Model the fold of this input.
Amino acid sequence: MKAVPGPLTFDIAEAAKQVLESLESSGYEAWLVGGCVRDLLMGQTPKDWDIATDATPEQVTKVFRDRSLIETGLKHGTVTVVTDHFPIEITTFREDGVYSDQRRPDTVCFTKSLLADLARRDFTINALAYHPVRGVIDCFDGMQDLSAKQLRCVGDPTQRFSEDALRILRGLRFAATLSFQIEEETAAAIHRERERLQAISAERIIAEMNALLMAEQVKPVLLEFADVVGVFIPEILPMIGFQQHNDYHVYDVWEHSVVAVDHCPYDLVVRWAALLHDIGKPACFSLDEDGVGHFYGHSAEGERLADKILRRLKFPNAQQQEIKTLVGCHDLSLKNQRKTARRYLARFGETVLKRLIALKRADNFALAPAYLSRQSDYDRFAELVDNLLEEGVCCSLADLQIKGGDLLRLGFQGAEIGQTLQRLLERVIDETLPNEEEELQKTALELQPCRDIAKLLEQAKFAVVLSGAGMDTESGLKDFRSQDGWWRQYNPAELASIDTFAHNYPLFHEFYSMRLGLMAEAKPHSGHYILADWEKRGYLQTIVTQNVSGLHRAAGSREVLEIHGTLAQTHCQSCGRSQSIANFISNGNCDCGGLLRPDVVLFGENLPEDVWQSAIEAIRQSDLLIVLGTSLTVYPAAGLIDLCSGKRVLIDLGAEADARFDFVLKEKAGQVLAEINAYLPANANSITAIIE
Done:
């Protein structure tokens, strides 16, 4: 055996000393071996103390018969002695038999040779033995490799990895945690033998990966050995080399993810989330006409893949959920607003939200340098969250100054109680409602109509929505009835009439040019998405709309009867040809000299007979009619209301009392629809995601 010359003395745990002395006083040879020797030579305090001896397990048991013993490793020659709650593993010198499961030897043969025992170990830096008197035994130049910061297998690396495939992943973990380079032949064997990891249990894989991800040098190891990780997480393989084709990124998808991991705090959940946060990108890639890459929907796809991966690797349930949440929400905008911070505190809780901020920081560090200034935005948001927590603001149902029992006394029942508490909490979070018992009870009573309308919607056989301009208003489209709107200056029937088109075209053109310009900026709001969802779920059959922007269709509604036509096109009144909106806005004249007008029904014109009759028939069939933001005096809506013989609901910010309706709610349509939706069976996650 090769002994290292010169005395080497180390501070050894008292329990380990006692075990060595007890074995030797009983006539046996005993050495500290493996990782504890490596750590001592590197100037570190070992976490575990392992001892090898020529005593058989039965002899070890006899020596320590007065101690607490753990004998679960007897088959492979290991007895654990517990001294003052300190466990010391004692293993008999051995030579291993065949490794048929590529993890543990089928049989072991006890030997009297320390050299034979060291020769079966994985890496040279772990094939070291130490005795306080005899010094260090180094038969495979492990100390030289320690000095060179090199990881090298004992003997033939292919044989070592074929014996125990987990050594492949242990090698990566050692390289990352110790900041070592993997020796060339050993690295080649790791790549070559990587598929052997398929034989290793998920529990062992995850233990090594957790240690690897928490290591200081995780970045170079993951970049060099991505193919190894791909054996047990094959979903990462499409990320490797996948170019992103946009100005935000200087790395491919895998490199970006690894750099993000490297910038994470030493938090295992955040690091796993960083590793997986863009795993959905390859499947969601698209290239626009300018050659710019986009990854629409990659967060949701990433969450789906993360769920699959984490289940397969048998993560603890709590960690699974947090990592999936972070992956699915990593693209959320952290606006520096109290309302946003409070909403996210309510949605995620303090721990997950702070982890999301950490993930956003790490993700940003992995972008092109031009975008690093966003770090200050995350600083401000984190400070805002801390301030809110210090204030003790209400961000959860537990903080709400009204409880389920209070709502029960107000007439709420069953699931309605939890739903109403959630709606109250949302208003408190939005700071539109104080967290005061009296105000909360008052608002709860105001929510009862929404609860009752939800019940009507569930019971209705044929529900129809009649939607007007109010829905556009909430989409950012200027309302002509607003304080500075056109309808306060002009008669609406005059502005949008066929008579004005014929006799005062400049006024007509001015009106619709502004309308079309505003339409270019209008987008569906939450109410449109909720209605589309109701239609898909069968609560709602038809939307009859004066809304000429197409916003209901843009939000996903299918059965839309647009009785006023569309502002998306214009046509020539003379030759009938379709024209672009740009042509109308610029001059209003067709090439033939005719005047252009939008494809909408004007006051005084007959509606398209088929659309009009369909709308009439739908409302006649309805047993529930919900009217949204519609001016009931404006043609043609006024004549439609009375066709419904069932229940009628009016939701309009400018509504007045009207005996024709069972419910009149004087609020914004989108807000009320959200309140009603909260009382329907839960299926609103997709809506929330779209809105955000």
Remarks:
- The first strand starts at residue 30 and ends at 33.
